[in-house]
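Researcher: Good morning. I'm working through a list of sequences from a screen, and I'd like to move beyond sequence-only analysis. For each chain I'm collecting a predicted structure so we can compare shapes side by side. This is the next one on the list. No need for commentary yet; just the structure.
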Amino acid sequence: MDTLTVIDMHTGGEPLRIVTAGYPPLGRGTIMQKRAYVRDTLDHLRKVLMFEPRGHADMYGALLVEPDLPSADLAVLFMHNEGYSTMCGHAIIALGRYAVDHGLVEASEPTTRVNIECPCGMVVADVDVIDGRAGAVSFESVPAFLFARDLTIDVPGYGAIVYDIAYGGAFYALADCPQFGLEFGRDPARGFVDAAVSLTEAVKAKVPLSHPDHSDLAFLYGAIFTDGGNGAARPTRNICVFADAQVDRSPTGSGVTARMATMHAKGDVRAGEVRQFESIVGSIFEGSIATTTKAGGHDAVTVRVSGRAHYSGRAEFIVEDDDPLRTGFLVR
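Model: Good morning. Structure tokens for this chain:
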């Protein structure tokens, strides 16, 4: 009988299940090597934690591992219903607070810096600390860029759709939802999910991706539908559908990064301007351009994303050897 212990948090409604015990030691190696090892040999533990009866189809998790980069305070592997992502902004916000609260870094007021090594690279989080208590968290993204702009693709059931592809730690297809006959606040989430999955599948079949740092980063993680706004006068709404039709309840940290990189490349936002992004549950992230840089041959930016995370529980999960459903299942 195996036992796994976790602490649960959420950032803007999006869950994060942080593994605190139960995984075997991973040994040394790069973060990408650790990611490959966990994917190839320990994937049954991801299913135990993410799938029913202990999780659900939209659960998200974080496994803390030994850092490889000398300047990292901690390193993390992200997990979800399909596998292992390369970047997760809502998780960074939660882990920044977690690191301060649990003494993984020495807390200092008014701001404590936490260097978090992710599969996409080092992400630096700044945690507000007031009277010894961790509060809001912001992070500066890895270099983000617009990969392709104003493309047109025929999506079965929806017709010709204009979209962009951008990288914000993961690659996303970005499109305005009115093209699909959808409207925030009117249409149920199911309609957005079906349309987003259709767009993702169509783009995957048509557009080859590449990333200058590592070939394992060159995959389309999902699609982000927006209301067409820019977040200046009022928050712009968006929904991110990623992995196996998983719906992000938060505005999506890497998605905000990708959107900001796209808006900057199109001249719609300048360095230092703050934009607001609203999720399907009404939670808000703020984004601003921190720096301009390069990512291989791409003009790129780093984006500062801000939000808040909260604790929702802790648990000890038991896996009995004779349980025929011990590795979990999903029902939609």
